[in-house]
Every structure is written in structure tokens, then in C-alpha cells.
Amino acid sequence: MSFLNSHLDLDARARRLLRTLIAQYLLDGEPVGSRTLSRSSGLAVSPATIRNIMSDLEDAGLVASPHTSAGRVPTPRGLRLFVDSLIELQPLPHEDMARLRRELPPQPTTTRDLLGNVSTLLSAMTHFAGVVTVPRQADFPLRHIDFVPLPDARVLVILVFSDNQVQNRIVQLAKPLDGSELEQAANYINAHFVGLRVDDIRAHLLGELRETGSELNRLLASAMELTTASFAPQVGGDDVLVSGQTNLMGYAELADLDRLRDLFEAFQKKNELLQLMEVCARAPGVRLFIGEESGFTALDGCSVVTASYGTQGRVLGAVGVIGPTRMAYERVIPVVQATAGLLSDALNRAATAS
């Protein structure tokens, strides 16, 4: 997994006490005192020894003492060490995997429908906010294209992609093309480039333009202009789907009104969230950011657990959850990992079927 490595050299007793402290804190959210550690750790050491070890862990920045309590809580650095080296992740329990398989439809209408189901399911499974990035439509192979002439050198473009998504776009051309020219261009693209992605179609057309004679060149030039206009990036639209944001209002760690306002504003604007998820998508496996590690102030009090998904060896995006730093990492990480795998499987099946 793509977790950060910690190089702290802790002896076996310190590691066991830290593991015990964090496990207890994740369970109830309360500072953990030396007596509790003495009872729960199973170590045959005196309370004084435990206090000394806790003091050393505090000096190392792994635990902290809230001023209202004699107990200690883990810091983000301590949680990072815990996740990286002190917990043993197990495969998702059979009943949870069965639920994921049951609630992810095997043949969704479109990829966006599937992704919406994934974000909702992640939220329901973890009781946090579920997050899924939406791939560019150009990342999916083309299944069919049609051009319909409109007044003033405009063209209605009807695009059908391999994930069953249908898009209608109106494009403006430099000069009008009649119905016959548009039909020829559409027939040429459908005959030669169905099954290719947009960037590949452009590259093939450009290469053929350089090599062909005048008559075919004119057809290719029209096809090239139409393709370039049809697949220009679209303004607006959701690049990230978020479900279950209101779940986060139920956690005391995030209950501060200013913190919640910043967090919900980040969910609404999505720019920073999209940047973070794109970073996650570029790395294989699971990524985890605890507190300030994300680099975005609105997420300072949160942990973000993500995993990349894709089809046919091509990464398309990332799925994940956002919740408080006090989360059951040993459960959440396998949920996110399994969901990303099942989403990839579903997309691969759809690509094969098309």
C-alpha cells in the first residue's frame, strides 16, 4: 500500500503500548490513562514504567496530553505509524464483500450511474462521506457518432460511448457543411475509429491527413474539424461525486461550526477535493492522508482513504471516504480497497460486453 513510511525506532514494549492506546482511543474517543494501558496491554510492567514510556512517546510526537485530562491521545503522526506498521489488515469479511457485490448493479445504465452507486455505498458502509472521481468521457472508447446540420454553420453531435453514455453537443464550425458531407464524415469515423478513444482518433486522423490525396484529404479535414470541435473539453459538470456529507456532522471531532463550514464548502466547490483525488488516482493501490497530510486546510481534522480504479489496465479515477481521524482504519481500508476492485471489475465487464 502507498502509505508513508515511518523510521521511528520503537522497542517492542513501546510499540505494544502505542498500539493499545490507539486501539482504545479509536474505540471510544477518550484520552487513555496509564491504568487502562496497564490492564489492556498485557505487559507485566509497573505503572511507573508505563508512564515513562508514554512520556517518551509524547516527546517523539506520537501521543499528546489534552490539558483537560491526565490521559493521552494519538497525534496524526502516531496514527500514521499505527496504520503503517502496527495494524494487520485483513481481507474484507465475507458478509461485507457480499453486500458490496449485491448492491453494486452488475449492468448499470451508464458509468455515471455506477459511480453514483459506489459513492452512496461507500458512505453507507463506513458512515463517512463517500467520494468518487468521474473519468473524462474521452477516456472511454467511442461506440458511434452522428452529425446533424443546424443553421449558421452549427452541428448537433450525437456521441455514444462504450459505457453507454450518450452526449449531445452543439459545435460551431468555421464554415457550414451540408448533410451529405456530415454523413460522409460520420460514416468514415464510425467505419475506421469505433472502439478508439478520442485522443487516438485525433492522432489517426492527423496522420492520415498528412498522407492522403486531395479528395480524401477534404473528407478527412472535415472529419478532423468535427472531431476536434465535438471532443473539446466541456465547461462545468461534476468531476467528483460525494455522498453522505451530513454523516460527518455526527462526529464530535468535526462538530465545530467553523470546521464544518470549511469542510462543506470544500465539498461544494470540489476544486481542492478533485486535486487530491487526482493525486490519489495516479498512485497504485490504497492512499491514506491523515489530518494535515492532505495539504488542504479544510481537511485538517479528517482522514482520507482512497484507492484507484480503472479498466483494461488504464487508471480512470479514485474512490474513497472522508471521515474523522478517529476511524477504524482496519475496517475502512479494506472496504475502500474492495470497492475499487469491484468497480474495476464492473467496468472491465462493460468494456468486454461492448
TrEMBL record:
Q: Which GO terms describe its biological process?
A: negative regulation of DNA-templated transcription
* Entry's transmembrane regions: none
Q: What is this protein called?
A: Heat-inducible transcription repressor HrcA
The answer to whether UniProt assigns keyword Metal-binding to this entry is: no
Q: One Pfam family, short name please?
A: HrcA
HAMAP family, A to Z: HrcA (MF_00081)
Which Gene Ontology MF annotations are present?
A: DNA binding
List, alphabetically, the InterPro entries matched.
GAF-like_dom_sf, HrcA, HrcA_C, WH-like_DNA-bd_sf, WH_DNA-bd_sf, WHTH_transcript_rep_HrcA_IDD
What the protein does comes down to: Negative regulator of class I heat shock genes (grpE-dnaK-dnaJ and groELS operons). Prevents heat-shock induction of these operons.
